[in-house]
Each structure stands twice: as structure tokens, then as C-alpha cells.
Write a structure and sequence with these properties.
The complex is a heterotrimer. Chain A is an all-alpha fold. Helices cover 67% and strands 0% of the residues of chain A. Chain A has one domain. Chain C is flat, with a radius of gyration of 15 Å. Chain C is mainly alpha-helical. Helix content of chain C is 84%, strand content 0%. The chains are: A mainly alpha, B mainly alpha, C mainly alpha.
């Protein structure tokens, strides 16, 4: 049982660490900002998630201290990662991408960063 | 009458339960005192921030949400391996990035938010922007030879399930 | 065995953070700097947790939770500054 937990913790730690390194490496290697956005949002999320899960298993198995803090941090990172990625993408498009470089929408209005609906009836009712 | 008082005290019952759960996870120690403190927080925060969320999200089938979460976690693992292989073994000139336009059938803001988050977390795709009238989603794909297939997979794999959960 | 896995993870995360620092110093644009900072924060959280296992203490959870929150808020604030020119309107 001890050995089994040890093998699992070591394996998850190695995988998590490798993915973190890979995310940082992708940030350097890829050649376009939109492409670079893919590396950290994916690799780092599984990397940090793996390390945190490993830490949870370790403390539960070897220190008899069951703690859910790691779960909380993992959930927080998983929720915030898409939001930061979306914000960075928007900032990048605001600065460096013109509307004519993007494929057009097939609807009535353009993309939210370049087009506005105005004061009329809103598509999503928040009242 | 009772319903109105209940609605006044718990404007968002799910949020109250969620805050209580988060508080118990944070202190990592379930005692009566901590549960009461968590309940106070769970009642006070939705009450104070009520103007921020005037309408309640509706979840039609909560059990489908569990299977959706498991599916997304599995896809995140697959996505990591895919992206890792692209980063390690493909040269920059050999990767074909595309913009993909995904027309949306979903109408509720919560469902669209979850779909956008899911797309960002899964194989080689990042959500970049929403159309001004929330009818299309702009997605950037890291490496694909067939943009239409990616769009169809997003629509079939995630949007259909979210539609079942929320509508 | 866990000892070696921990050392490996620490090495990976440290090299990753160095690469992030390099990217922050030599970035092609402001947005890349923000992206690198965000990755740096995420790597720092992982490093803190590995360090917590290495020293066998639970003190570092609170630290990493706080860093996670500050990292998220600062990334959003930077992006908002680029998008809008000010942070709180």
C-alpha cells in the first residue's frame, strides 16, 4: 500500500513537472502570440493540477492529514485559466489584429471587440 | 408570504450552499461553529451583492452536468498530450493555425460562458471573442488541416450536451 | 523514490520559471509579457506546493492560494489596462 501510493505520487509529480516545463518552453518556441496563448493555458493547467493532486495524495497517505486546500486551489486555477486566456486574447486582438484579418460572422453584427449593438434591445436579457 | 421571505433571505440558494462548502474547505475542519460561520457568510454575501446578479441561472438536468464535467476532465488530459506533441515535435512552419467561427445555438449567458471555458481548456483551441449579438464564437485552433471538422466537433461534443443541461 | 520525483519536479519548475523570466525580458510585445507573467505565477504556485511536500509542512497552501488570487487579479488588471486605458471606470 505504501509502495503503491509512493509510485502514484512520484508518477503524478514527474508528469506535472514535465508539463509545467513544456508550457514554459512552448511560450518561447511558438512564433505567434495567438499560438503562444495555447502553451501555458493547457500545459500549465494540467501541470499545476497534477502537482496539487500529488500533494493531496501524499499528505493523505504519509502524514495522515487529509486536506482539501489543494482541491480548492486546483478548482480556482481551472476556473480562472480560461478567463485569463480570453482576456489576453482580447488584449492582443485590440492591439495587433485588425478586423479584416478575422473571418466574418455570418450574422447581423461583427465581433464584440470591433462592433457594437448600441442602446437597442440586447440579445441576452440580463433584467 | 413565506416564499417571499425565503427568497429575501436566500436570493441564490445554490450560491449560499457553494459559499458554505468553500468556507468548510478553506478552514478544513467541520465543526458546528464553522458551519454556522459559513452559513452567515453564505447569507451575507449574496444579500450584499444581490444587485450584481439579478436573474437566477436555471439548470434543467444537474446529473448530466456531472457526466459533462468528467468528459471535460478527460478531454483536458487528452488536450495536454496533443498540445505537448505539437510543441515538441512539430516545427513552426509545419503547424497550420486557423480561425474558426462557431455559430451558437445556446442563448443563456451561463451556458455560453461554460462553452467558451470548455473550448479554451480542450484540444488545441482557445476562445478569442464573441460576436456583438452573442450569436457566434471566434475560436483559434493551434493545429488543424480541417477547420470545419473542429467546428462540428465543438458543436456536437460540447454544445449539444450543454443544451441538454441548460434547456 | 518520492525524493527523486520531487527533485525532478523542482528542477523542471525552476527551469520553466527561468524560461518565463527570459520571455518577460525579451518579449516581442506587451501581451506576451502579460502571458509570461501569468505563466510565471502558475509555475510559482506549483513550485510552492512541491516545496511544501519536500519540507513536509502545510504552511505553503495558504501562500499558494493567495498567490493564485493575486496572479489572476493582476493579469486581468493588466489586460484591462491595455483594453480600456484604465482599470476601474
Amino acid at each position: 500500500m505504501e509502495l503503491f501510493a509512493e509510485i502514484i505520487v512520484s508518477f503524478i509529480l514527474v508528469v506535472g513537472g514535465s508539463f509545467c516545463l513544456l508550457g514554459s518552453f512552448g511560450l518561447i518556441k511558438l512564433d505567434d502570440t495567438m499560438r503562444r496563448l495555447h502553451a501555458p493555458t493547457k500545459a500549465s493547467t494540467l501541470g499545476v493540477g497534477g502537482v496539487l493532486i500529488a500533494s493531496m495524495i501524499y499528505f493523505a497517505a504519509f502524514a495522515d492529514r487529509i486536506s482539501f486546500h489543494e482541491l480548492l486551489i486546483t478548482a480556482f486555477i481551472f476556473i480562472t485559466a480560461p478567463i485569463t486566456a480570453n482576456f489576453v486574447a482580447k488584449a492582443h486582438m485590440h492591439r495587433d489584429v485588425k478586423e479584416r484579418d478575422l473571418p466574418p460572422t455570418t450574422g447581423k453584427y461583427g465581433w464584440a471587440g470591433y462592433d457594437e449593438i448600441g442602446d437597442g434591445p440586447q440579445p441576452i436579457d440580463t433584467k | 408570504m413565506i416564499k417571499r421571505i425565503l427568497l429575501r433571505v436566500f436570493p441564490h440558494p445554490q450560491l449560499t450552499a457553494f459559499l458554505l462548502l468553500i468556507w468548510l474547505l478553506l478552514v478544513n475542519n467541520v465543526t458546528v461553529g464553522n458551519v454556522i460561520l459559513g452559513l452567515i457568510i453564505g447569507v451575507a454575501i449574496p444579500g450584499i451583492t444581490q444587485p450584481f446578479w439579478p436573474n437566477q441561472p436555471r439548470i434543467a438536468r444537474p446529473f448530466k452536468a456531472v457526466s459533462y464535467i468528467l468528459l471535460v476532465i478527460w478531454d483536458i488530459c487528452v488536450a495536454n498530450v496533443t498540445v505537448a506533441r505539437i510543441i515538441l515535435f512539430k516545427s513552426n512552419a509545419n503547424t497550420h493555425s486557423h480561425w474558426i467561427v462557431v455559430p451558437l445555438d445556446l442563448r443563456s449567458p451561463e451556458a455560453i460562458t461554460i462553452l467558451a471555458g470548455t473550448i479554451t481548456m480542450t484540444p488545441g483551441t482557445v476562445t478569442a471573442m464573441l460576436a456583438a449579438d452573442a450569436s457566434h464564437l471566434l475560436v483559434h485552433c493551434l493545429d488543424t488541416d480541417d477547420p470545419d471538422a473542429v467546428r462540428d466537433e465543438i458543436k456536437h461534443r460540447y454544445e449539444r450536451r450543454l443544451k441538454e443541461i441548460f434547456e | 523514490m518520492i525524493q527523486y520525483a520531487l527533485y525532478y519536479a523542482v528542477a523542471c519548475l525552476s527551469v520553466g520559471m527561468l524560461l518565463n523570466l527570459w520571455r518577460i525580458r525579451f518579449a516581442p510585445g506587451v501581451v506576451d509579457r502579460i502571458l509570461a507573467l501569468d505563466t510565471l505565477v502558475v509555475n510559482a504556485i506549483a513550485l510552492l506546493n512541491v516545496y511544501g511536500i519536500l519540507l513536509d509542512t502545510a504552511v505553503y497552501f495558504e501562500v499558494s492560494l493567495l498567490i493564485a488570487m493575486f496572479g489572476f487579479v493582476s493579469t486581468v488588471a493588466y489586460c484591462r489596462f491595455i483594453l480600456r486605458g484604465n482599470i476601474i471606470e
